[in-house]
Design goal:
about 160 residues, alpha+beta, Nucleoside Triphosphate Pyrophosphohydrolase, ten-stranded mixed beta sheet
Length: about 160
């Protein structure tokens, strides 16, 4: 698998996903999974573990962080052309949501709300791959034209 610059995780707690409404681009003002940039001395999995710790103040063991594939695209403002995808399933998380932080607001969102076709408040590609990501490894490729999402292709890995 290629080494990309960024990571993205979807943390599932009783059919609710931990999401962030970002204050900055990309996807400013939209709900997305947690994630960030891989540092020089990290594997993608170590990077997402650190991001979860920084953003939620919670330590998740590497064993509980499941690699779920990659998300690629034909163009975008972010560096690189791909993101490592991860999934975590927890019985509970002892935090009071919503959480206000520098990067945005973190809250729990129901899976059916995230994937609703009329939901314009979530990064537009997530609804097309989140159900598959929960249960299997996938390669998601997004095709954009004039900064508009035109197609999402999800293939099993």
């Amino acid at each position: 698998m290629a080494m990309y610059t960024y990571t993205l995780v979807f943390i599932n707690i009783a059919s609710h996903i931990v999401m962030i409404n970002r204050n900055k681009a990309p996807w400013m003002g939209m709900w997305n999974g947690l994630g960030g940039k891989i540092q020089e001395d990290e594997t993608p999995k170590q990077s997402i573990q650190r991001e979860i710790q920084e953003e939620l103040g919670v330590h998740i063991s590497l064993h509980d962080i499941l690699e779920r594939g990659i998300l690629t695209w034909n163009m975008f403002e972010a560096d690189g052309q791909g993101i490592h995808l991860f999934y975590v399933e927890l019985d509970q998380l002892d935090l009071a949501f919503p959480i206000q932080m520098d990067e945005g607001i973190i809250d729990l969102k129901r899976i059916d709300w995230i994937t609703h076709l009329n939901n314009k408040g979530v990064a537009p590609n997530i609804k097309y791959f989140l159900p598959q990501l929960i249960s299997s490894k996938i390669h998601v490729h997004c095709h954009f034209e004039n900064e508009q999402l035109k197609e999402v292709v999800v293939k099993p890995l």
